[in-house]
Specification:
About 45% of the residues lie in helices and about 10% in strands. It folds into two domains: about 45 residues, no CATH class; about 375 residues, Cytochrome-c3 Hydrogenase, chain B (Orthogonal Bundle), CATH 1.10.645.10. The protein has a three-stranded antiparallel sheet with strand order 3-4-5, with no helix packed on it. The protein has a three-stranded antiparallel sheet with strand order 8-9-10. The protein is mainly alpha-helical. The termini are far apart. Keywords: Cell inner membrane, Cell membrane, Membrane, NAD, Oxidoreductase, Quinone, Translocase, Transport, Ubiquinone. NDH-1 is composed of 14 different subunits. Subunits NuoB, C, D, E, F, and G constitute the peripheral sector of the complex. Its main location: membrane.
Length: about 475
Amino acid sequence: MSAKPGTCTGSASRDIPTCAASTCGKASKVSRSARISRSAATRTTSIRSAPKGRRRPSPTLPPTTFQQESARHRKREMTEVTELMRPQGEALDTKEVLLNLGPQHPSTHGVLRLVLELDGEYVARVDPHIGYLHRGTEKLAESFTYTQIFPLTDRLDYVCPPSNNLAFALAVEKLLGIEAPIRAQYIRVMMAELARISGHLLITGALPMDLGAMTALLYAMREREMIMDLLEMITGARMHTSFCRVGGVREDLPEGFLPKIREFCEIFPNRIRDYERLLEGNRVFLSRTQGIGVISPEVGIDLGLSGPNLRASGVNWDIRRDEPYEIYDRLDFNVITRKEGDCYARWQCRVEEMRESVRLIEQCLDQMPEGPFQVDMPTIAFPMDKDRVHCSMEALIQHFDLSAYGFKVPKGEVYSAIEAPKGELGFYIISDGTEKPFRMKVRAPSFVNLQALFGVTNARYLADMIAVLGSLDPVMAEVDK
């Protein structure tokens, strides 16, 4: 209504604004409103006439719906608390909850889905679900020539492609009964150790980041960028290098590479000490990793673990030393082990292994001889001098035949393994005498190491699963293949 508010003259107070169309009749200052009953008036009069110093009694009102619900809720809470405070030994009614960790969770390091059965914060069971990144690498290899398979191996552990290339090349060379030239072997080992540092740097920074410490990852990415620049200088690619070839490597080291890698070897050990100073005195990082996710030596061997995950449990096993390949028997290095078997021990093993990798690279630089970088076999290796392809008919035919049709491998089967950054990486190949493998099986260390989720102890809380998974360092492209 548009009427202006006024003061109701029928009310005992003239300060109550009312509508101009109020039905209250005219009344004097002392008269009651016609809308107030006698009982209400009596109650009001008695309250107003109470002697000074005495508290006025509050009117008794029925409880509202909200108050009734609140009372019932408090009673229910008290009942639950009473049940929880019963003496031990009496069974409590509990309900387990299924929680999906992944496949899009950042701490799963890829598309891994963990179905966790939780009893509160307690993890009663872990059920990994894999296959989200399955590309059929092993089946695709049956349709590719041996040279064409190298790009497929790049995409297994995409953090360390040179190691994958080397493992496959050694398996095929074993079938052919050949060895790469000594210079090529030194180049291969040097690149494999660069890849090892690159892979360890990633998890050295990613594990603290999973637990809330961002700084370590930023430092690790700084040094990893230096390695990516070195790989790009050698191969022309930062990630998928495809640099190895059956019988050697694709090309020789470029000019200016040796001073660059020596500079890296001088800088990097001091950077490793920075990581240790940053995290080894961090009480939060230590409390989240020490004594968490313990894997005993017996369990590690039974599960088929390898690499830093096994050596952190006290098992002194390294294929580079115990079953040497390439020129590792000419190099001096220490096999890093720990005895605790927890998340922190696995982190420490990787940090120390980076120091040993720097030593191995320096020895390769000092010992590397002159000579060819691939075997001189026109039926297997591409022409070493690419300029000959443009001016020599024989070189052009050789290059075309190897690119289009590949080379034949004698009938047989072989298994060859190397010490990759994640552990034992092996290739089992069956040849039927053609240019393509009849069957290829990849022994991926990440796939095997992921089984450790079933064997860890002292990691029974949800927050601990993040630390355990990060310390195992799985790469899902290698798991799913």
